[in-house]
Write the structure tokens for this entry.
Amino acid sequence: MGRFSRQFSWRWWSRGKNKSSDDVELSAERLEGGDRRQLLQALSAMVGGGALAAMPQPAGAKDSSELPPPKRALTGRDEAGKSVFKSFDVTSKVAEIDSNPGLTFYELYMTEGVPGLTGLEPDPMLKGTKDFPGPGGTLFRLISYPPKRPEGYKPPPGVTFESALKELSDKVPGMGDHFDRSAPGMHTTNTIDYGVVVRGEMTLELDDGKMVHLRQGDCIVQNGTRHRWRNPLPEPCLMAFVSVGGKRG
């Protein structure tokens, strides 16, 4: 990534925060070369992590609540068959995970089987959401991941790993069932997931312990494999996913 691209992405992300352009450029450059390698090596050595585990970080992390919630434009048809906007607002289903502050699911749309495409279908999210679609179904969601936690961070009072998974399943039915109890953050689903980093940065870890560092605009295709997400920066990360239900071979 060139100097102009780094400056542009970090300035866009800062959105007028109290940080000079020189500081922004310096922050981006510090993640290049040896410092970036050291950061990734340290992450690879950590046990646990991912969306449900605390990770050390500098104390000045930004809260994802500082960012405006994403809006969803939902189209359909009117009685004359002409295309219309049925809504343009935050999705009707937002799941904020209290046990892991900053972890938020924006559930955008889902289908089962072959969509009818009449344009008259009601918003499926008004009925609620689910973990992942069945074979042939789809689910479109945004997930806002919290920043790395400050040194010495502790979960909210009374929160345990099991209680966090229960809350996750209560708010996104069945989601907690996919997580590996022996390796916090690791999970497997019967889906192909198409993902893109919308804001921030993310690392993806697989069974062999290797990690790939994803920057804004980078994409992944997750073929039903066991994996774990980790946010390496003191900024929230927003990712978009389309999950397509499949069957194990």
